Amino acid sequence: MKLGFIGTGTIATSVIEGLLKSKAKIGQINISTRSYKNSIKLRKKSKKIRAYSENQDIIDNSSIVFIGLLPKVASKELKICQFKKSQTIVSFVSTLNIKSLKKLCNPVKKIVKAAPLPMASDGLSPTIIYPNHKLIKSLFELTGSVIVAKNENQNNHLWVMSSFMATYASIINLLKKYLLKNKVNNEDANKYLNIFLTGMLFEFNHQNFDLNKSIKSLQTRGGINEELLKRLQKDKFFKKIDINLKKIFLRLKKANDK
User: Fold this and answer.
1) Strand ranges inside the chain, DSSP E
2) Which domains, and CATH codes, for the chain?
3) Buried/exposed 136-168: b ≥16 CB within 10 Å, e otherwise
4) Which residue from 148, 154, 139 is spatially nearest to 26, judged by alpha carbons?
5) β-strands 64-67, 88-91: how paired?
6) Cα separations in angstroms, 69 against 74, 91, 217
7) Which DSSP symbol is given to 221?
8) How far apart are CA 125 and CA 107, in angstroms?
9) Alpha helices in 80-142 (DSSP H)
10) pTM score, whole prediction
11) pLDDT tens digits along 105-124
12) For the segment 11-50, what is each residue's pLDDT rounded down to a tens digit?
């Protein structure tokens, strides 16, 4: 099996690293030299990595081609590429639907949309795929877990979740800044937040991810958890997040309905 990656940004690089760590039975991984830093890093990790300056060379030497380009760049680049009917295309591009991909990658018939996350490098990515494809599903299972969307609409809703990563990191960064501003040293701040976040995941797991139950159990009547939650609810913090998640969905839906 020969894999090709058009675009070697953060996501593609993470998937490649995860696959290499998993000891997957892959004969060759073809990447682009256009992202010079990442291509150098990946070539140092395995002799299976081959780098090409032209996207067409990657396609010609791959049975499965992963598209990891920005939306506008992807449409422009794919139009000038030639594909084989026997190939499988896996697109990481959020705003290109299956119909558009079939036109751009003609005569390919096997096309899958996938949304792996940077944690794929550590085998911890919850990857969304649509439609289901046995081989592609098994590959992404080597980099974490796989959620198969039932249709394009559900796929859009699931992709909305991936938009929360930077926001989540910003919330944690706010907590860290609070500690640093109040004379907690960097090492202790990192140590506390690291264990705190890991412990919270275990807490959710113990409650079988019944988050309503966890929210209730984590509050003591009259305590500081209850107070902060009520203050944020009063400020419509959660409502604003919900409103903006819906806006992200509408953006995805509009792009994928074309």
Assistant:
1) 2-6, 28-32, 49-52, 64-67, 88-91, 110-115, 125-130, 144-148
2) 2-149 (3.40.50.720), 165-256 (1.10.3730)
3) bbebbebbbebbbbeebeebbbbbbebbeeeee
4) 139
5) parallel
6) 5, 9, 44
7) T
8) 31
9) 98-104, 134-141
10) 0.91
11) 999 999 999 999 999 999 99
12) 999 999 999 999 888 999 999 988 888 899 999 999 999 9
DSSP 182: T
Structure tokens at 148: 């198969």
Token digits of residue 17: 């690293």
- Per-residue pLDDT tens for 231-244? 999 999 999 999 99
pLDDT tens for each residue of 133-184: 999 999 999 999 999 999 999 999 999 999 999 999 999 999 999 999 999 9
- Are 95 and 255 in contact by the 8 Å Cβ rule? The answer is yes
Q: Tokens 């706010």 — which residue?
A: 174
